[in-house]
Amino acid sequence: PPRNSNAVRDIANVLHPYTDHRAHAVNGPLVISRGEGVRVFDDQGKEYIEAMAGLWCASLGFDNKRLVDAAYRQMQKLPFYHGFTAKSHEPMIDLAEMLIERAPVPMSKVFFANSGSEANDTAVKMIWYANNAMGRPDKKKIIGRLKGYHGITIASGSITGLPANHKMFDLPVSDRFIHVSTPHHYHGANPGESEEDFATRLAEELDQVIQREGPETVAAFFAEPAMGAGGVIVPPATYFEKVQAVLKKHDVLFVADEVICGFGRTGSYWGSQTFGITPDILVCAKALSASFLPISAVMVNDRVFQALADGSATIGTWGHGFTYSGHPVPAAVAVETLKIYDEMDIVGHAKRVGGHMQKTLRARFADHPLVGEIRGIGLVAAMELVADKATHRNFDPGAKVGPRLAKLAEGEGVIMRAMVNDSMGFSPPLIITEAEVDEMIARVGRALDALTVQLRR
Ligand code: PLP
Questions:
Q1: Is the backbone of residue 321 left (phi > 0), alpha (psi -120 to 50) or beta?
Q2: Which domains does the chain have, with CATH numbers?
Q3: pLDDT band, very low/low/confident/very high, at 1 (cuts 50, 70, 90)
Q4: Mutation probe of ligand 1 site: the residue of 150, 159, 284 with most atoms within 8 A of C-beta
Q5: Residues 223-243: pLDDT tens digits?
Q6: Model-level pTM?
Q7: In principle, which of 156, 196, 253, 261 could form an S-S bond with 120, CB 3.0–4.6 Å?
Q8: What is the position in ligand 1's atom list of the atom closest to the CA of 152?
Q9: Backbone phi, then psi, for 450, in 5-degree steps?
Q10: pLDDT tens digits for 390-410?
Q11: Which residues on neighbouring strands pair with residue 167, listed in sequence order?
């Protein structure tokens, strides 16, 4: 490429998230220049269907004039203000009110942050503070799940359950963070074990872990309703019902991480509704603003809020907040986003098109010799590639079979993502149509055929 090309300048200057920089120095970046609906275009003009909505987030696609106008209007009126020491502004008030109205269970208040990681860290600090305020300072341990993804800051990264990531950063940061098993029936169940029996076993494990640690030390359980980055893992039947019974018994709070599932992704407004979860705290981000601008939110129920309010008198005001908490421009964009969701019936659309996507993925790929499991719900799915269909054995990670499929898909005009165990993710913009789903799946099919030929050689 020419010396001043984007690729050369990128290699020279950009430190990328989650990128092998040695390989990157040779291969260079895929530079995306513009977007249109569910499609993006690179700097050479090549078109791609974004099967992952970027990072599970661009729910309304890659162009939406109403969101642009909402940002522009707000920037002209009041480009910045904050919420510290009881300051406020209308976009923050409007958005908080809309979220409380739409919450899956009665919620009391909304706190704003800028990312999913910050929102989860905030939830941890709310819980630790609340338990101090409630006079039970030992109740601080946080339980996450292996393969759960909750972010990358020190606390949220400690709740995330990816041992490889933990190892490189010496996480979890303290023994306050504990992990229980992944609720993935395909890999975790014993031979012949039903989903219900598997769920019972996982709930018993959780109960044992809490008993072992001492219920008086365990504060909260964090879970994505359906796991995303861990490989789109839909919990086995009755799982959350049984888990919640255990948590209730030990007075352990439930934090629903709805960063991916929120706003229709699983075919209900919230993943909590899809799976019968009654969260004490709900965290959302990504589709909250259709990802046009960064913003995240933490909703708390009245019990948690009262502890935060009471604490001001006894242990000092809850000392937490970001400069950009509730920033008026992303908040105005989020307000407009939620209005668009209502107008387009995002839930009905995701349910209908999601049903079509789930059915078509299975019809097209379930019998393929490289495909072990196709799983998902609504407009989120994964296709897991295996070396042995009968035993569910995965390929050696060093063979990079998933990333190779992602690269071939790129050639066919689809951007998709290889996750743990060569699980290929599908989480397209929620506005995708059935015809676009068919086009995306046809392109992935051609890539899978090419991969099959490569692996036979
Ligand atoms: N929680 C979940 C479920 C996520 O999927 C993510 C990001 O993918 C996060 C938290 C972290 O969000 P962020 O990358 O905005 O910090």
A1: left
A2: 31-63+346-456 (3.90.1150.10), 78-181+213-227+247-344 (3.40.640.10)
A3: low
A4: 150
A5: 999 999 999 999 999 999 999
A6: 0.98
A7: 156
A8: 16
A9: -65, -40
A10: 999 999 999 999 999 999 999
A11: none
